[in-house]
Each structure stands twice: as C-alpha cells, then as structure tokens.
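Ticket opened by: R.M.
Priority: normal
Category: complex prediction / small molecule

The reporter submitted a protein together with octanoyl-coenzyme A and asked that the result be attached to this ticket for the collaborator who will pick it up next week. Submitted input follows.
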Amino acid sequence: MSESLIEVQDNEGIVRLTINRPKALNALNSAVIDALEQVLVELETRADLRAVLITGAGEKSFVAGADIAEMRDKTPQQARDFAAQALRTIKRLETLPVPVVALVNGFCLGGGCELALACDWAVASDNAVFGQPEVLLGVIPGFGGTQRLPRRVGPAMALDLCTTGRKIDAQEALRIGLVNQVLSQDALEEYAQTLTKQLGGNGPGAVRSAKQAIHDGMDQDLDSALALETSLFALSFAGEEQREGMSAFVEKRKPEF
Ligand code: CO8
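Result attached by the on-call engineer:
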C-alpha cells in the first residue's frame, strides 16, 4: 500500500477512495482532510466520473472521528477554522454529481459518522460501530452531525445519539436508517465489486440526473421538485444515451454506454 493519506483507485470512472491512516484508526487530522479535499477538487473536474466509493484502510475502522490529539489545544477560532475546512471538504464529497457510497468497514464515530452521512448511502460491515460521542469529550459534532443526522434518522434518534454519546452496532444502524445494508467484511468487498459493475453498466448521464433530481428536489416543495424531474427526464431524451438504452432493449442486446 502506498503512503498517501488518501488512496485512489480508478476503475473506468468508478473511483474508490481509502482513508489511509490505520494506526490512528483513520482519524481525520488536518493533513487527511487536506489530502481528501485535493482529491475531491480533481474529481470535480472529471467528466468521466461515474461513482465514488469511500472506505477506511484496515479491517477495524472506517474513521474513528476527528483527531482528538490534534484538536485538544485548539482555541475557539482554530476549532472554527478546522470545522470550516472539514465542512467544506465534506460538502465537496456530498455534491459530487455522481453517487457517493460509504463502505463502512468498522468504527464510524464522530467525524467518521459525519463523513458517512454526507454520502448518498452507506453499507456497513457487521463489526461496524456508529456514534456521535463528542459529548464524552466535552464538545458537540462539528462536521455536520447535528444537521445531517436528524435529516437521515429523524430528530429524536439524532438527539438520543448526540446527547448520550452511546455507540450503536451495525444492526441498530440498519434499523434506524443510517445504513442501507449490513454485510460481513468479505461480503462488503463483494458488494463494492457488484456495485462497480452495476453503476458502470448504467447510462452515466442518467445516473447523474437521478442524483441531481433527488438532491435538488429534496430542498424544494413537491410541485417544484416534480417540475425539476420532468425537465431532467425530458433532457435525457436529448442525448445518445436514451436512444442507445432503448434501442438495446428493443434489439434484445446489452446497451453500450
Ligand atoms: N483521534 C486521534 N487518535 C485516535 C482516534 C481519534 N479520534 N481514535 C483512535 N485513535 C488512535 C488511538 O489514540 C490509538 O493510538 P495509539 O496506538 O498511538 O495509542 C489508536 O488510534 C488505536 O486506538 P485504540 O487503542 O483506542 O483502539 P481501541 O480498539 O482500544 O478503541 C475506539 C477503539 C473505541 C474507536 C477508541 O479509539 C476511541 O474511542 N476513539 C475515539 C472515538 C471518538 O471519540 N471519536 C470522536 C472524536 S471527536 C469528533 O470526531 C468531532 C468532530 C468535530 C470536530 C469539530 C471541529 C473542531
């Protein structure tokens, strides 16, 4: 494994990012966040990008939070700057125009849970542990947890997790809607490969439009959101992709996107 803090593997536009700081359970310090932001800035410019998968190095941890040792001596202004840097980076991940999927392969705590919440969906290994334990350290979530967690699991469960700081296992994360599936570590790897094939076989423009319709529509009233869907649906008939997809069906062959 190379020494870079963010490993990048590219499989024809399906990019897998691995947060690579396993000795600290992939805790997010400024260097990791800087490296992640640099990678994301590059990905934003890629017209051939089809999906992003993000995971942690090793079999024990996705991300065990922001780096506590690095944060300990921060002043309020330094804490604000650190949170701003992380929020900006996480927003870049969230707003990539393609599906972003968290492969949660172990501890997913604090800033790690907040990172997973910015992904379009998350799939966890059965040893994964989730939580927002910031109150145990005398702080609150600062990478978006108080805002994205209630939007994902509802305010009552978000308040439970953010005020007790209790940790939950993968099955409870599944039950409350924090993750879409729970799999063994091996099956998580197979899932990544299957997903790569599935997303790689679909019309890339259509996949992007589906994300855009859902993301942008969620911030609008239903009628405006339905009008947005209609516009994007109609637009999908303007390119080659729709003709190829529908012709392939009629001609009983696989489409070539
Ligand atoms: N920060 C820094 N180092 C960490 C972190 C972390 N979050 N988590 C683990 N490590 C390090 C440990 O210090 C240890 O290092 P070393 O080997 O040098 O002693 C190494 O990783 C292995 O960890 P453990 O020995 O503790 O492993 P265990 O299997 O015994 O325990 C746990 C695993 C339960 C995950 C435990 O490490 C733990 O509780 N970690 C902290 C989890 C946590 O509290 N996370 C939330 C952090 S706060 C946060 O994310 C707030 C984000 C918003 C910030 C706002 C901006 C300012």
